[in-house]
Structure formats: C-alpha cells, structure tokens
Amino acid sequence: MTTTIDPPERRETAADKLRQGRHAISERWHHAPRWVRWVLLVAVIAFFYALPNKEFYQYLGPIPTPGANFTQVMFTVSIYVLLAVGLNIVVGFAGLLDLGYFGFFAVGAYTVAVLTSPSSDVKTLWPWLLVVPIAIALTMVSGVMLGTPTLRLRGDYLALVTLGFAEMIRIAAVSSEFLKGQRGFNQIPHPPGEYADGRPWFGVLDARPYYWLVLTLIILVVIGVRNLTHSRVGRAWISIREDEDAAQLMGVPTFKFKLWAFASGAAIAGLAGALFAGKQNFVNSQNFELLNSIIILAAVIFGGSGNIVGAIVGGGLVAYMIERFRGIELFGVELYEYRFLFFGLVLVVMMIFRPQGLIPNRRRAAEFKDRRKEVIVGE
Amino acid sequence: MLLEIEDVSLLYGRIQALHGISLTVDEGEIVALIGANGAGKSTTMRAISGIRPVASGTIKFAGEDITKLRADLRVRRGLCQAPEGRGIFPGMSVLENLDMGAYTRRDKAGIAQDLARVLDLFPRLAERRKQAGGTLSGGEQQMLAVGRALMSRPKLLLLDEPSMGLAPMLIQQIFTIITEINQQGTTILLVEQNAQQALARAHRAYVLETGRIVKSGTGTDLLHDPSVKEAYLGVA
Hints:
The complex is a heterodimer.
Chain A: H1 14-31, H2 34-50, H3 54-57, H4 70-93, H5 101-116, H6 128-150, H7 156-175, H8 208-229, H9 232-242, H10 244-249, H11 254-280, H12 290-303, H13 308-324, E1 329-330, E2 333-334, H14 339-353, H15 362-378
Antiparallel strand pairs in A: 1-2
Chain B: E1 3-12, E2 15-25, E3 30-35, H1 41-49, E4 56-61, E5 64-65, H2 71-77, E6 79-82, H3 94-101, H4 108-121, H5 123-127, H6 138-150, E7 156-160, H7 168-183, E8 187-192, H8 195-201, E9 204-209, E10 212-218, H9 219-223, H10 226-232
Parallel strand pairs in B: 3-8, 3-9, 6-7, 7-8
Antiparallel strand pairs in B: 1-2, 1-4, 4-5, 9-10
Helix pairs in contact in B: 3-6
C-alpha cells in the first residue's frame, strides 16, 4: 500500500527551473544538520546586531542610505518588521483582513505619551518601563472591543471596520484637546538604564540602542509566535483561514480564536507604538497616517503572508526601500517624492508574477492553487 | 431518539429555505434525506450542525435541546458533519486534516486507534497521508472529509452529498463504506441526490421538496413508491 502515482510529465519552463532552484535552497536548509542551521541563524542575527555601526556598514557598498542617517533608518525598519510580524498573525495565520493595524500602533504610542509626558493633562509622569505593559494591555483591550462585534461577521466587514477604526484614532489625535493634535506630547521619557559613568543607555542622538532593543524584542516575539503556531492555537488559526465553516464543523470555536489572533496582533502593535514613543520623545497626530496601515499590510503580503520569515523580510524590505529613495536625484527629480509610485509598481508586478509573496508559506501556496482551481471550475 | 427535529424553519435573508421541517433519527440507523437541487437538503444539514441559525423550531440531540448551541459545542456533544464537496483543508496534509477531525479530543490512544481505523477504511488516504488535501482528486477529498468527521468519534455522523461528482465505481465504494461505518456502530444521517443508492442503503428516508418534507418511510418502501420513482429515480 505504499505505491504513489507519479504526476504526468510536462515540459519544463524557465519558471519551473526557478521554482526548483528555490525549492532546492529550502530543501537544503531543511535537510542541513542542526548545527549548520544554528550557525547560519546566529550569523544572520549577529549581522543585524552589527549593522547600525558605522565601522561595519561603511564597507557594505550601496546598502547604507545616502540621504538619511542609516542608524535612524534601521530603527524605523525594525519597527516596521515588528509590526509586520504582528500583522502576520492576524492576516497571515488567521486570515483576517485588518486594514487599520496602524491604529493599534497609535493606541500604544498615545498611551505612553499620555501617561508619561509632562505636556499631558493627566500629569502622571510615570516612567516609560512601567507604562509599556499598560500600553500593551490597552491595545489588546481595544483589539477585543473592536473584534467582538465584527469578528462574528464574515468577510469584508472586518476590513471596513478596521479601516474606520484607524481613521477614528487618527482624527481623534488630530482634533481632540486631550490628545493635543499637531502640538503633540513632548519630553516622553526614554527607556531606563545608564552606563557606569552616568550617561544613559538610551539617549537622544544615538539610535543604535533603540534599534538593538527592538531587534531583541523582535527575536523574543518571533520565538513566541513560532511556539503559538505550532500549538493547538496555531492549528485552529490555520484551519479558520483555510475554511471557516469546516473549522467550526470540526469543533474549533472559531470566534474565540479569531478574537485571540486579533488581540495578540494588536498587542504587538501596541508594543511597537510604545517603543516608538520612547525613542521619539515626541508624539503628535502626524505620525499616524492611514498610509502606514496599507504599507504594513503590503509588506506582509509582499513577504509572504502566513510565513514569519516572509513577514520579517517583507517588513524590512518595504520600509528600507522607501527610505532608500531619499537623497537620490534622477534628471533633477528627487526620487523620494515618487517613492510610493515605485512602491505601487513593485506591488503590481509582484501580484502578477508571485501573488503568494516572496517567501510563501507552504500551506498558503497550496491554498492559492486550490482557490485558483475553484475559480476555474466555477466558471 | 438520538436526533429530533421539530418544526424547524430557516431563512436566508428574506427567503425562507425551510418551512417547518420535522424528522427523527434513531440510534444505529442510517437515515437518508433525498430531494432535488435546492430542495433544502444541505440547509437542513447546516441547521443541524449549527452553521446556520434557525428561525423557529427545536433541534434535540440525545435528549438535549441544542437549537441555540454553538456549532463547535455540538461537535463536542458527538454530532459531526462531513461538509459537502470541498470542505477539507486544502493546505493541510491528509494526516493534518484527519488530526483536525480529532480537534475536540485529547485521548491520544483513542485518537491513534481511530486514525488506524480510518486509514484502514480508506487505503487511498493511507497512501497519500503526506500529500496536501487540495492536491487530492475529488473522490479522495470526499473520502478525506468522511474520514476526518469519523476522527471526532461522533455519535451521529452527518454526510452531505458524499457521492457528489464521483465516478460510478467510487460511488459504489463510498456507499459500501458508509454501510460499514454504520455497522461499526455510528448512526448516520445522509443527504443525497443519488436517491437510488441512498434509499437502498438507508433504514428510513425522508423526501424533501422546496423546504418541506413531503414523504417519509423505510428505504425500501420509498424505493418502490411510484411518485418517488418518477421524480427521483428516473423511472417512468
């Protein structure tokens, strides 16, 4: 009973060869001895820890950004990576379309701002570290509040409601007296810690410590998310994404798990917002444009929805590419002005040639095929 | 009575899909629900499994009123449906799909035992255990859906069109397996367009027309009923 039927032979195309090439890389990775994988992983992580040091990145040729402080750019990129990892739980694993993810980021940042800044009306002036867990908890609560009425519904409602949520937060930030609009909150405290000589770890000029902090948290979050996806929770999420009715028919409490995915994604965005506020020292309504939500969603899809590595690569590449355009002139035109045009072009090209993303999830790729078949059958 | 449905009506928006349906399934039976396309067969199944809320009427399972119970909790009570057509998880392998069937259970030994039993019932699935569900043929997907439902060790197995889109050879095979599952002690409620096979295998059957039950009786009675013959068996 172990015979298998070979698939019918057909001529190889260039695309097939490419696919096989990539397949070979992933095969080699999966079949490599454990220690080889560990060494590679440690090397990659070490590379990213070293990256913001000028002594290191000046030898990296075109990688540093010409028009902006590369260390600052790396901090922005790291925040986007963290956001992409979080949104990937919602969109990639549970298959829920969240168009207002940046709204949770704003909730996190504003929680920190309101509770720590001297310009806030409540004047609590709490230290940053104390407020971080509060910010995470509050974003989670806002996720649950938003999710409870909408996640019972199917399909596009959630996308619309989340879109509305992000706009509500933004407009509240712009016009509410309590949230200070454009004037914003200043003197938000930095994370704690100081060197032996009394200089703080987290200062104003050097972005590196913040980047390292975010990088470390990304690693911790990724480990956590990985463990979750390999558990019953992860299986439930994947089953909901693949076929919600079938998941329910197998006894998966779909609403509960959708809410969980939504809340955990929100919590990660809240953490990112708190980190951002602690670094920036200043938060105002201009930090939270709707476009940011779209960029993160695009990053997750670009990288390969449903795959943690894909989300990391997508978030990193997208945030980096946008910054990379700064300071480049072509025929007297500053390319940075047209960054979203290029961004859009890249996305369109991607969706035509590789709709499943750069590094797709194996399952997700199979689902894509299945859906295409369904469309053809349905016609 | 294992399952008792009384006067159940169901609406899709403003369209009434079921008009006061009543039916019963006794322990150990195979009960068939036959009818034409759009008669409300699958809708009845959805009402029983809890995917669709009913507008009025009651559904009782093993004596308990489950009319308002959530679908996933009904599975825990021992009521499991193999959904119609492509209701498998396309990105999961055959084994992962079967594993999802046992989602509500935690008894490892029992699950392993049932897995062996399912793979024994469906040797094709054993051959393809590592393959993604979406890459299976229609017949194999159907078997996977039935096998997956069995993995929850249901008291009542709901089968929605298990023979749909299958070659005649496979139809025979799947009905043989259905009888076998029943003889091993699982009660079955079966929805079918293939009335011939369904009536021949079922202890009792109901005929559904535009959301109403118009006839009921033993499988053999209905098989020989002139009006059923004319409408569903293609015999004048």
